[in-house]
Amino acid sequence: MLTLASKLKREDGLKGSRTSATASDSTRRVSVRDRLLVKEVAELEANLPCTCKVHFPDPNKLHCFQLTVTPDEGYYQGGKFQFETEVPDAYNMVPPKVKCLTRIWHPNITETGEICLSLLREHSIDGTGWAPTRTLKDVVWGLNSLFTDLLNFDDPLNIEAAEHHLRDKVS
């Protein structure tokens, strides 16, 4: 993490020697994303749920990270679920892309790893979708909640998993 932060500080120092015409729009956009991520990752690490761990394979690429959720209650207690998160260049105007890497039988996660979580939707009918005011902390807490209070059998993405649960529900 510190490596990218240091890099951003050096870039700020060099800005005075460059003209804005030499920097392309995509460079500025990535730079804005990276600036947000330095701040958000620090906040995330300070407020991480005890059932979650974040891993950055490359500390210079805060836009690609893995999350491990280990629920300590509910149906999935004792399981260990891996998620891959990629933060696009247009962040925070668009949500991060998240995929579940662990095969799981879950009403809100398909067998191919797609996730049904309203805050990950760019546009949501119910108004709870992505907004520029949301952060990575919201995403991690939302993914963690999929295994407890946001477990939704009434409006599932994986209909077969939801029907199976309702049919064979343990009292």
UniProtKB/TrEMBL annotation:
CDD domains: UBCc_UBE2F_UBE2M (cd23794). It is an enzyme of class 2 (transferase). Keywords: ATP-binding, Nucleotide-binding, Transferase, Ubl conjugation pathway. It comes from the Eukaryota. GO terms for molecular function: ATP binding; NEDD8 conjugating enzyme activity. The keyword Lipid metabolism does not apply. PROSITE patterns: UBC_1, UBC_2. Pathway: Protein modification; protein neddylation. The active site is at 116 (glycyl thioester intermediate). The keyword DNA repair does not apply. Residues 32-171 form the UBC core domain. Its EC number is 2.3.2.34. It catalyses: [E1 NEDD8-activating enzyme]-S-[NEDD8 protein]-yl-L-cysteine + [E2 NEDD8-conjugating enzyme]-L-cysteine = [E1 NEDD8-activating enzyme]-L-cysteine + [E2 NEDD8-conjugating enzyme]-S-[NEDD8-protein]-yl-L-cysteine. SUPFAM superfamilies: UBC-like. SMART domains: UBCc. Residues 1-26 are annotated as: Disordered. InterPro entries: Ub_conjugating_enzyme, UBC, UBQ-conjugating_AS, UBQ-conjugating_enzyme/RWD. GO terms for biological process: protein neddylation. Pfam families: UQ_con. Belongs to the ubiquitin-conjugating enzyme family. Accepts the ubiquitin-like protein NEDD8 from the UBA3-NAE1 E1 complex and catalyzes its covalent attachment to other proteins. Together with the E3 ubiquitin ligase RNF7/RBX2, specifically neddylates cullin-5 (CUL5). Does not neddylate CUL1, CUL2, CUL3, CUL4A or CUL4B. Mediates neddylation of the CUL9-RBX1 complex. Interacts with UBA3 and RBX2. Interacts (N-terminally acetylated form) with (via DCUN1 domain) DCUN1D1, DCUN1D2, DCUN1D3, DCUN1D4 and DCUN1D5. This is E2 NEDD8-conjugating enzyme. The lineage of its organism: Eukaryota, Metazoa, Chordata, Craniata, Vertebrata.
